[in-house]
Amino acid sequence: MGKNNGESLKLNSESVPWSQRNELVRELEEFLLNTLSWGEVPIAHDASDVFVPDKHFEPEPSSRKIQLYEDPTPEMEVARESQLVRALADAKGREISMLEQLVADGGQTHYRTLIDELGVSKSTYYRALEQLNDLVESQNGTVGFVCAKIHEDLREIFELAEHGKAQIDYAKRATERVLSLSENILENTSGALTKWAAKWGVEFEERDVHGGDTRLAIKIQSVLNRLGGPKLADVLDEGYSAWSDAGRRTSEFVDALVEYDDALTGAEHTLVNKEIVV
User: Is 271 left (phi over 0), alpha (psi -120 to 50) or beta?
Assistant: First the structure.
């Protein structure tokens, strides 16, 4: 950044009039301090073991007033994941196949290569691309996911199920179940809990128990405990962390009923507190 002969500042390729330089500095400082704060980097002058005074430097509060904002990234993450599950639940077979092939291709490929791999016509390809425009984009002949997060989440979903058609069907069913989760569980919750529910095809219910009380029931639609596959305890550990991060009462999760399909014994039920130690 520097001043040029036209009485303006050059910031990358953009010019800022010299008369607006103070506003530019304020915006840059605001952006920098908010980014550091969201990353949990201490910015207060009296932060412990961060700014160490010596004979040349004495940490003191700045006289400049910088507006600090609440971190928007958790809400952005939840919105992106909601967009993903809704788009995937509405997708037809050809769209699912395109997503699966893009994941297999590393997240992006040339559109001609994708058409050949899918064995479809150009018109079919363009219709699928239009249906998936919230997840997939095409630029200069290269088609890929709109962001790395979508690629990562889809890769995890597809990796959970069997190969072939079962893999496609599983991913679709998992996202459909996420859309039907009770609103009192997932409303205003964290992206981690939403993602965990989508990943394992989880449904939450409130079950009536003896004495008129209710208890949380967790229905896991994935088949667990396959040889070399995910174990129930690992899935519940992950869910407990996500539940806790969402600010929900951990005792509610720990005391919950669990229903799942075991690869060896079929339908099973247990309690969370019998499977994990917290």
Answer: beta
Written as one letter, the residue type at 181 is: L
In this prediction the pTM is: 0.46
Answer for the pair 218, 257: CB distance below 8 angstroms, yes or no: yes
Residues contacting residue 4 through CB under 8 Å, at least 6 positions apart:
10, 15
Give the closest residue to 273 by CA, choosing from 260, 249, 256, 261.
Answer: 256
What's the full length of the chain, in residues?
278
Give CA–CA dist 109/93, Å, rounded: 20
| 225/140 Cα distance (integer angstroms) | 45
Residue matched to tokens 């219910």: 205
Tell me the chain's radius of gyration from C-alpha atoms: 25
Domain ranges (residues) in the chain = 1-71, 73-180, 182-278
d(C-alpha 203, C-alpha 220), whole Å: 7
Per-residue pLDDT in tens (0 to 9) along the chain, 278 residues: 544 555 555 556 677 788 888 888 888 889 998 888 888 888 888 877 778 888 888 888 888 888 888 877 766 665 666 667 667 767 788 888 899 899 889 999 999 999 999 999 999 999 999 989 888 999 999 999 988 878 887 887 777 654 444 545 555 555 555 445 444 455 545 567 877 887 787 888 888 877 778 899 998 877 787 776 788 999 999 999 989 988 888 999 999 999 998 888 888 999 999 999 87
Sole residue written with tokens 């005391």: 255
- CATH code of domain 73-180: 1.10.10.10
Q: What share of the chain is helix, strand, coil (3-state, %, to 5)?
A: 50, 20, 35
Report the C-alpha gap between 277 and 205 in whole angstroms: 23
d(CA 265, CA 248): 32
